[in-house]
Write the C-alpha cells for this entry.
Amino acid sequence: MEEAHRGKTEIGKRAHRTGVIAAVGVLTGCFAGLIATLYNSVAEMVEEFAAGYYGYIRDNPWFVPLLFLGLFLGGIVIGGSVRLFPVLKGSGFPQTEGVVEGKLHFRWYQALIDMFAAGLFCVFAGASAGAEGPSLLLGGACGGGVGRIFRCGDDLRRYSITGGACAGLAVSLNAPLTGMIFAFEEAHKRFTPEVFVCSFSSVVAAMAVRALLGPCVGLHGGPFLKTFSPVGDAGLLFTLEALGAAAVCALLAVALYYAILFAHRRFQKLTFFRGTGRYLIPFLAMGVLGLFSVWAMGSGIGVIESLGSGSEHTMSVFGAPIWATLLIVIALRFVASVLNAGCDLPCCSSVPMMAIGACVGSLMSLLFEQWGMDPMLADGLVIVCMVTFLSAVVKAPLTGIIMSVELTQSFSFLLPAIVGVAVGYLVGEMFRTEPLYEVLLEDTFGRPEEPKAPKDPEEPEKA
C-alpha cells in the first residue's frame, strides 16, 4: 500500500511539474512570439530600405564618401556597444547556447533591448545578415524574463530560456518543427520530456501569436521559400547527381568553416580603439560589397528565392551570364560571412550561408543540365546544396533535414536532403570540423571548467 501510495505521489509530482513547464512555456511563447514577430517585420522593412539607399548611392556616386563615413561611425558604435554589453558578441546562436548550457549569464531585459537595436542597426548598414539568430536570442531573453518575473527556479528558468529561443527561431523561419529541433540538437543535445514540453508549448504559442499579428505587420504565412516546385520521383540518377553536388558544396562549407575560425582568432588580436576598432573592418567591407551588388546584402532569402523555378526575378551582376553571376555572389557572400562571423558581429549568418549553398546548387544544376539532367530537377539540387552547406558548417543534420521540408512545405525534397546532409556531415567529419557555434562560443567567452545552471545576475551573492 505504501509503495502504491508513493508511486501515485511521484506520478502526481511529475504531472504537476509537466503542467508548470507547459504553463511557463505558453507564457514564454506568447512573449517571444510578440517580440520575434515585431523584430522580423521591422528587419524586412529595414533590409528593403537599405537595398534602396545603396541603389541610390550606386546611381549617384558622389554620395559614396558619405556612405563610408556613416559606416565608419557605425562600426565604432557597434564596437562600443559590444564592449559594454558582451552578450552582443556573435550571431545569437552561440550566446543562446551558452546561456542554456550555463556557460553565460545575461540580464534578460538588457539582452532584449541590445540585440533588437544592434541587429537592426547591422541590417540598416547593409550587412549580409539573417534575422533568425537575433530572433533566437530575443526569444531566449523573453524566456529569461518570464523566469525572472515568476521567480522560477534554476531548472525551470533554463527550460523557459530554451522554449523562448525555440519560439524565436520558429517565428523567424515560419518553421515550428525546426524551432523545436533546435532544443534537442543544439541547446540541450538530448531528448527529455521536459525539453519536449517546454519547446512544444512555447513554439505553439509563438506561432499562434505570429499567425494573429503577422498579417498586421507584413509577415504572412505560407512556405518560407515560395518559388520552389516539387521534384517528384527523381530516380537513381538524380540521387547520384545530388551526391556529387553535395560533396562539392560540403568542401566549400569546410573551407568557409576554417576561414571563419582563422578570421575569428585574428580579429581577437586586434586591440586598436580598445578593441572596438576591429568592427570597422566588416562595416567598411559592407559598403564595398553592397555597392558592388545588392545580392551581397541582406539575409539571402531573396537570393535563394530567385533560384527557384517559380521565381519572376533572375540574379544578374553587371549583366553577367547566370553562371558568372552565381560565382560572383558566392564569392561576395563567402567574404561577408567570414568577416561577420569572424568579428562576432551581432547579426546571423545561417541563412546567408544557406544562400551560398543554394548558389552552389544552382551552379551545379547548370552543369548537370549540360550533361542531360532534367531542368525540372534543378530546384531539388538547390535545396540539397542549401541544407548540405548549413549542416556541414554547424553540424546539425536533423535541423537541415527538417528545414528542407518546412521551408518549402513539400516532402518531395526530403530524401534528396537526407542524402545531401549525410554527405555534408561525413565530409565535415573527414576534415575534423566541430559545430561552428560551439567553437565560436568557446573562442569568444572561454571554456568553463564546470558548466553550471543559469544564475540570475540580478540576485545578490549569498554570504
